[in-house]
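Shift notes (night). Ran Lipoprotein while the centrifuge was going.
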Amino acid sequence: MKIRLAVPLSLGLILSSCANEPSITESYGVDSPGGNLLVSVCYSATNTTRQEIENLAAKSCPAGTTGISVAGHNTLLNQCPLSKKNRVTFECHGYPVTAE
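Came back to this:
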């Protein structure tokens, strides 16, 4: 009986820990103070470090980006799943702009 309960419980814990990795989402409802590209990251505050979030945001900015800054943060109505209810939005700085 204990083994039958332990296996699904262990599997559930393993899968839930993977589901909480930070991920990129839409930046709806956030304005860019400098008019630059915005990158939003969903994350769980219980198991994600600031460095992980900033690294993901920086990698998602255009090539040549020289820095990022926080443009907004929210926890409600933000296109993030319940397991990662926090969203922080970064503004990408210094990337080369190409003419269309």
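Helices lie at 2-19, 50-60. Residues 16 and 73 are 24 Å apart (CA to CA).
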